[in-house]
């Protein structure tokens, strides 16, 4: 029951906050993932960015990540999923993400890091749920370096932000409609789509 779920992992499964292409149920299906629950939610004091390139890539489309934005009045809308332990582990493998138990290991070049955040489901009158979500590994490393006074080098700076590919944003936009995210948030996503009624066929595999 959602109202009783205040811990990130329960006997029934693991809570995960999806904010990028995992908003879209067809992406989850392409990955063979079946959530036990799916609830629209918001993550306050963060903003969505497109700064992720897969390990070894120096060009090409970027994927979504999030960054802390305290005091800026921003929030990221997404879906609070409950997955089985097996499906959550499979999700981390597909996303090339460092599992929570591993921490941030030196010389670990995986794309994302899984960290715990506090998410507020829609319409829950202030109740919050602890969930895992994904951060760009390079951003986490840069933040840690700045905290310890080692910032400034090429290895310890935030990755550059780029516009998302049309397909990536369109898949997010479609998913936001599927799950009933906030209309103003959906409108901001649509602002990035230059062709609102395109006949292009969306690709869900490989996202």
Verbal overview:
The chain has helices at residues 25-30, 85-95, 137-147, 166-179, 183-190, and strands at residues 9-10, 13-18, 37-44, 46-52, 63-68, 75-83, 97-98, 112-121, 129-136. The chain is α+β, with helices and mostly antiparallel strands and 207 residues long. The protein is globular and about 40 Å long. The chain is built from five helices and nine strands, in the order ββαββββαβββααα. The strands form two sheets. Strands 1, 2, 3, 6, 7, 8 and 9 form a seven-stranded mixed beta sheet that branches. A two-stranded antiparallel sheet has the order 4-5. β8 and β9 form a beta hairpin.
Kindly list the characteristics that best describe this protein.
28% strand, 9 strands, alpha+beta, disordered N terminus, 7-stranded mixed sheet, two-stranded antiparallel ribbon
- Whole-number average pLDDT? 80
Q: How many strand units?
A: 9
Total count of helical runs of at least 4 residues = 5
Low-confidence stretches: 1-6, 195-199
Instruction: Characterize the overall form.
Output: globular
- Sequence of secondary-structure elements: EEHEEEEHEEEHHH
Report the end-to-end length measured between terminal Cα atoms: 30 Å
Q: Over the alpha carbons, how many angstroms does the gyration radius reach? A: 17 Å
Proportion of residues in β-strands: 25-35%
Residues in helices, as a percent range? 10-25%
Largest sheet: 7 strands, mixed
**Structural class by sheet pairing and helices:** alpha+beta
């Amino acid at each position: 029951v959602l109202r009783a779920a205040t811990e990130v992992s329960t006997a029934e499964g693991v809570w995960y906050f999806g904010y990028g292409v995992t908003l879209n149920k067809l992406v989850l299906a392409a990955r063979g993932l079946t959530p036990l629950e799916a609830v629209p939610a918001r993550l306050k004091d963060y903003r969505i960015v497109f700064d992720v390139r897969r390990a070894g890539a120096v060009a090409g489309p970027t994927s979504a990540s999030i960054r802390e934005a305290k005091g800026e009045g921003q929030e990221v809308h997404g879906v609070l999923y409950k997955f089985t332990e097996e499906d959550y582990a499979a999700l981390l493998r597909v996303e090339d993400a460092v599992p929570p138990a591993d921490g941030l290991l030196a010389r670990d070049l995986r794309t994302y890091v899984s960290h715990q955040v506090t998410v507020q489901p829609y319409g829950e009158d202030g109740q919050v749920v602890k969930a895992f979500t994904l951060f760009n590994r390079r951003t986490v490393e840069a933040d840690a370096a700045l905290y310890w006074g080692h910032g400034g080098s090429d290895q310890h700076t935030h990755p550059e932000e780029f516009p998302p590919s049309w397909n990536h944003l369109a898949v997010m936009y479609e998913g936001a409609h599927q799950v009933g995210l906030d209309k103003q948030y959906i409108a901001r996503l649509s602002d990035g789509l230059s062709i609102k009624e395109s006949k292009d066929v969306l690709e869900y595999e490989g996202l």
